[in-house]
Design a protein that fits this description.
single chain; alpha+beta; six-stranded mixed beta sheet; 8 helices; about 50% helix; about 10% strand
Length: about 290
């Protein structure tokens, strides 16, 4: 019995038909191979993008957290801290300090007494010193929580309030703002504290209220606030800022800050004892204890 040839194996086809069929098979195989290579390339690109994104995200996180830690120079306090005051005796030096600005103490701080005027003090009461950088988030938390109360305590003669600008953050505004503080202390001592408080409450806190800001204030804010608190002609302040008149002293202040063993801002001292857990009302508790002695 004779059966039909199976055309699938090429039997019964002419030589030309077999060649045409072979060409079609080769063409199809080539197309499939090209498609496979394209898929592999696309998959490789996707995997590469995912890996780069993951690595980039990890690097960003490490750098971001490292920058925050470095910028704050070891400051780990937060506004939720509470409990008994934790005080550590300190011994500050003056080896790096020279050519102190007017109305500052021997350590470069700006004391304020009952007149609320820079360069004054209240005798026989605790001296509360705050080292700060305007761009420090914890300094902004401290000022937001305590500025009014500290000012009132100084006004009532219960403490001498000393503010010590120190440049921790290596950005221009940190330097310019600290220099504006020293200029105000020297040239407008009666307006210094008002300028200081208003800079924090009006310019800085709105930026830090929801965490670390992505920008810094314009330097023009310094002369604007100075004028707002009563400086009639801010041209001399502007010139001092343009000339970086206090930059060398700030550098010296920073060296002394480190030499004294301080590592973060805000650094809070009460009668030469460092208070490490100032938030949550602890600062006022520590002051009350110092006043009771």
């Amino acid at each position: 019995m004779s059966g039909k040839q199976n055309p699938g194996n090429g039997a019964g086809l002419t030589k030309e038909q077999r060649r045409a069929r072979a060409r079609e098979v080769a063409k199809r195989m080539a197309a499939e191979e090209a498609a496979r290579k394209r898929r592999n390339i696309i998959i490789s690109w996707i995997v590469g993008i995912v890996v780069v994104a993951l690595v980039g995200g990890l690097v960003w996180y490490i750098v971001s957290e490292g920058s925050k830690q470095s910028a704050s120079q070891g400051s780990t306090t937060s506004q939720s801290a509470s409990g008994d005051p934790q005080l550590t005796a300190t011994k500050r030096g003056t080896d790096n300090l020279a050519n102190l600005p007017q109305n500052t103490d021997q350590y470069g701080g700006i004391p304020v007494g009952s007149s609320l005027k820079a360069g004054t003090s209240n005798e026989g009461v605790p001296n509360v010193t705050v080292y700060y950088d305007f761009m420090c988030i914890y300094c902004n938390q401290l000022e937001h929580q305590y500025a009014d109360q500290l000012t009132e305590l100084a006004k009532e003669g219960k403490i001498t309030l000393t503010y010590a600008p120190v440049r921790i953050f290596q950005d221009e505004f940190s330097s310019k703002a600290a220099q504006a503080e020293y200029w105000m202390a020297e040239n407008q001592p009666d307006l210094f504290l008002k300028f200081h408080n208003q800079m924090f409450s009006e310019v800085m806190w709105p930026m830090f209220e929801n965490g670390e800001p992505s920008t810094t204030p314009e330097n023009s804010e310094l002369t604007r606030v100075a004028k707002e608190v009563g400086v009639k002609d801010t041209s001399a302040l502007q010139k001092a800022l343009d000339d970086d008149a206090y930059a060398s002293f700030l550098t010296a202040q920073g060296k002394q800050f480190q030499a004294d063993g301080f590592t973060g801002t805000p650094t809070v001292l009460i009668n030469e004892q460092q208070l490490s857990n100032w938030p949550g009302g602890v600062l006022l508790t520590a002051i009350n204890q110092a006043m009771a002695k």
